[in-house]
Design brief:
elongated; 7-stranded antiparallel sheet; about 35% helix; Nuclear Transport Factor 2, Chain: A; 2 domains; 5-stranded mixed sheet
Length: about 350
């Protein structure tokens, strides 16, 4: 009963078993053959939002999520019992944890990320399927999740592993933020493809707490920042939207070049970090800022993943990128030095 069936069968028991093996190595078409258009699983509460819908697409996304974290994923089938249109399958899931796996809250927010431990696991699972017209319309399961966590070293976590978990979650969150901002960019740029040319990074130490530094940078619709900066000429058309993220036009002078762009925020997490799409400019992309406590100070870091939106900008960027990098770094350090001793 452990072999992946090669002959398509409409027998309910075969359909249930095939759907389990599909999770380990089925392609997208394989899911069409066993999952109904409105088919759903009750076991996707901690899965990525993309795996929480209905139909073959959602089940396939669930499979990709598991495969991304667990190598050598296989299912050993022990028993399968049919009663009318209800099928129960007892199985053991095998695999090895080789990449981070992220779990999500019921409202789709990132909850916990377990970095890879390289350990193998074998856990028992019992699956129930309801089948109509030869397709799965409902699925639920009992899984030994605690056994999985113990075998992989997730619990009890060592202090070192807790640190790795925190770092893994931070990386995953930044990745989600970047995807959201890049999506915003793709909705606004011209039809001509953009090209990523440069990733510009820098940091400066501010003699203020994270809350004070945040207020200095973003308070009063960024007008205080305009006063302290040598490169930011103006902030216009400032709008704080209902979802708590701002959007505004920023005018920046970098050497002989004046850049006018729209900052459209997807993350505005006071006083920790921001992510915004840079729109309506030949030099667009995604801009990120972090505010990390450093003793009594705050270390502010930024990363601008620049995307050009015109052929002329693509020609200029290799020449302008070093100037942009130096200018942004020097301006942030200038602002930090000018607020030395400031009390907000």
């Amino acid at each position: 009963m452990n072999a992946h069936p090669t002959v398509v069968s409409t027998d309910p028991k075969s359909i249930a078993i095939r759907s389990i093996h599909n999770m380990a190595r089925g392609n997208r078409t394989d899911f069409d053959e066993v999952i109904g258009v409105g088919g759903f699983t009750r076991e996707s509460r901690a899965a990525p939002p993309s795996a929480r819908g209905t139909g073959p697409d959602a089940f396939y996304e669930l499979a990709l999520w598991l495969r991304a974290a667990f190598e050598d994923l296989t299912y050993e089938i022990h028993h399968a019992v049919t009663e009318r249109n209800l099928i129960t399958v007892n199985s053991t899931m095998h695999g090895r944890h080789t990449a981070p796996i992220a779990f999500y809250t019921e409202d789709g927010k990132l909850d916990t990320v377990f970095p890879p431990t390289g350990r193998t696991f074998a856990i028992t699972q019992s699956h129930w399927f309801r089948i109509e017209d030869g397709k799965i319309v409902e699925h639920w399961a009992n899984r030994d999740d605690l056994g999985l966590a113990k075998q992989l070293g997730w619990v009890p976590p060592t202090p070192t592993y807790l640190i790795r978990m925190a770092r893994a979650k931070r990386r995953a969150q930044r990745s989600l933020y970047r995807v959201a901002a890049e999506s915003a960019v793709s909705r606004h740029v011209p039809a001509e493809p953009t090209v990523k040319h440069r990733r510009i990074e820098g940091e400066a130490l501010f003699p203020l707490s994270p809350e004070q530094t945040w207020d200095l940078v973003f308070g009063n619709r960024l007008q205080r920042l305009v006063e302290l900066s040598d490169s930011i000429v103006a902030v216009e058309n400032y709008e704080m939207r209902a979802n708590g993220t701002p959007r505004y036009v920023m005018v920046t002078r970098i050497g002989p070049v004046t850049i006018r762009s729209t900052s459209d925020y997807t993350v505005y997490n006071r006083p920790r970090n921001t992510v915004n799409a840079v729109l309506d400019s030949p030099f667009g992309g995604v801009y990120e800022m972090d505010f990390q406590p450093d003793g009594a100070n705050t270390r502010v870091s930024y990363c601008w993943s620049i995307e050009t939106t015109t052929p002329f900008a693509r020609i200029l960027l290799p020449v302008l990128a070093p100037l942009i990098a130096r200018s942004l770094r020097a301006d942030l350090e200038t602002v930090a030095s000018r607020v030395s001793g400031t009390r907000l």
